[in-house]
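Hi there,

I know you've been waiting on this one. I reran it after we fixed the sequence typo, so this is the corrected version. Both the input and the resulting structure follow.
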Amino acid sequence: MTDQATLWEQNAYPEKKKILTGAEMEKRARKWIHDNFNVWCSMKRVAKHRALYGKRVSIAKLVEDVRDECEVDAIDGEKFKVNNSLRAPLARILITECPEVAPYIDTRMSKTDPILMGGKACINGQHQS
């Protein structure tokens, strides 16, 4: 029975996912922004609009809203995708590029805080000491 379980695990999980460092997450997020710049601009526009009206900003919601708006990515003609592991660094980059959004975005501590937030944790859009 144990041999069957081991065989099943090997087939079900052929490769274990690598745990990314904060620097790797930030690099991937910046590459995603570069590759999906039109989508990123739309996400920033929606975030600024929501903040202007005092509404909560969520990276997950931004992705879904912009996905409805943008049928394809201009670079390769494919629908854009956002890996869940990119959401934290994208939120931090959004805060640095659009500080007016910071009070309206919920964040928790992330491995990317030391890199993107100058070594300080970013909780609920605010730099912590």
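Quick highlight: Residues 37-52 form the longest helix (16 residues).

Best,
R. S.
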